[in-house]
Amino acid sequence: MKDHDILAALETSNHKLVLAESCTGGLAVATLAQIPGISNFLCGSAVSSRREAKKDWLGIPDTLIEQYTAESAEVTQAMCRGVLQQTPEATIGGAITGHLGPNAATDKDGVIYISIAKKVGDEIVQVTCVRRVLKEEERVSRQIEASQILIKLLQSSL
Questions:
Q1: Other Cβ atoms within 10 Å of 62 Cβ, number
Q2: Domain range spanning residue 16?
């Protein structure tokens, strides 16, 4: 994927993009922000690493996090819906969460969830939600890999 590919897809679709990031810490939006002309389509990103930020900024109920954990498909989908609801101009949203280590349980270590949704009229429609296990071992390398996966999924959803 070349940087200009997602810009061309956004130009063609005329979608306005917003992100909700947790485990990537804003790296996905920082990567996108390096593309000249992307600001015509990129609304921004809510970096919500902590539970309270997910609740306060994105409207994620405590009960959802308690039931499924913050690193789950259900919470990622809610993050995506929440960031789209909080950004009236945006028409497509992406969200990512996961556990990149250290100190992750073996079954969660390197596991990420990505959700993509679009506004269709007054409704938010789920496009995709995927679970991926990252190949990289080191945390920063995992953040880079996770950001790249999110951007590729966004591009393919346009």
A1: 11
A2: 3-157
Q: What are phi and psi of 47, to 5 degrees?
A: -90, 105
Domain count, the chain: 1
- DSSP readout, 117-133? EEEETTEEEEEEEEEEE
Q: Whole-angstrom Cα distance, residue 140 to residue 24?
A: 9
- pTM given for the model: 0.94
Tens digit of each residue's pLDDT (9 = 90 or more) over 101-112: 888 888 899 999
CA atoms within a 13 Å half-sphere pointing along the CA-CB vector of 124: 21
**CATH code, domain with 67:** 3.90.950.20
Closest CA to 58 of 23, 96, 86, 77: 86
Edge-first strand order for the sheet with 42-47 is 42-47, 17-21, 92-99, 111-120, 123-133
